[in-house]
Amino acid sequence: EIVMTQSPGTLSVSPGERATLSCRASQSISINLAWYHQKPGQAPRLLIYGASTRATGIPARFSGSGSGTEFTLTISSLQSEDFAVYYCQQYNNWPGTFGQGTKVEIK
Amino acid sequence: EVQLVESGGDLAQPGGSLRLSCSASGFTFSTYWMTWVRQAPGKGLEWVASIKEDGSEKVYVDFVKGRFTVSRDNAKNSLHLQMHGLRAEDTAVYFCVRGLAGASMWVFAYWGQGTLVTVSS
After folding, report:
1. What is the largest CA-CA distance in chain A?
2. Which residues fall within 8 angstroms of residue B56, CB to CB, at 6 or more apart?
3. Which pLDDT tens digit goes with each residue over A69-107?
């Protein structure tokens, strides 16, 4: 099973600032990597797949990069609705596995 | 609009059974793999089981093999998860999930609101 490790565990950011989240895979997953965010009491929402393709309706301030084992999600200018927990997920190997999450909180 | 609505979550005794259901609408259900993902309280996401479009192939993660069975009824646009031998560690919100089309079928674009399973005596 591929282990996905996210860092940092918690990121404190002021509205309008840039946030950079990292995700590392225990072995190469090519670009088969997705990012989701989840607000309390809600289901996760797909943000990025294929490491860098924004899902339908996702604003351009969200961008993803990376391949192989190292991936990054960047939020260029945090809005109030972006404060949430972010998960990465690999879907290169069965079973697809998720990272433990990065909580983005208001500084 | 794609909609996934789970039901069946409840309080169960250790060793007990529950059957979860997911009612799907807004897309051609029979043409998509479907998946159950769970989330323990305050924890991360775990893939549980997936089933092929026609039900001919099912895959499970190791920790539910032999205890959980995924099934579907394409005539009724419904997905099910039969759970036996429940353990305290199965306590979680269970989400019914659909992926994107084709090669991105494991990219989970659509989620239900989840149904809570609590295993406790």
Report:
1. 38
2. none
3. 999 999 999 999 999 999 999 999 988 999 999 999 998
% of residues, chain A, pLDDT over 70: 100
Pick among A91, A100, A102 to test the B interface (most B CBs inside 10 A): A91
**What sign does the dihedral B85-B90-B94-B98 (CA atoms) show?**
negative
> In chain A, what is the straight-line distance between the N-terminal and C-terminal CA atoms, in Å?
35
Q: Between B46, B61, B109, which is nearest A46 by CB?
A: B109
Distance from CA of A44 to the nearest CA of B (A): 7
Which is nearest to B95 in space by CA: B34, B43, B10? B34
> What is the per-residue pLDDT across A39-72, written as a single tens digit (0 to 9) for each?
999 999 999 999 999 999 999 999 999 999 999 9
Q: Is B74 helix (H, G, I), strand (E, B) or coil?
A: coil
Segments of chain A assigned E as strands: 4-7, 10-13, 19-25, 33-38, 45-49, 53-54, 62-67, 70-75, 85-90, 97-98, 102-106
Predicted confidence at residue B104, as pLDDT, reads 85
Beta bridge partners of B57: none
CB contact under 8 A, B114 and A94: no
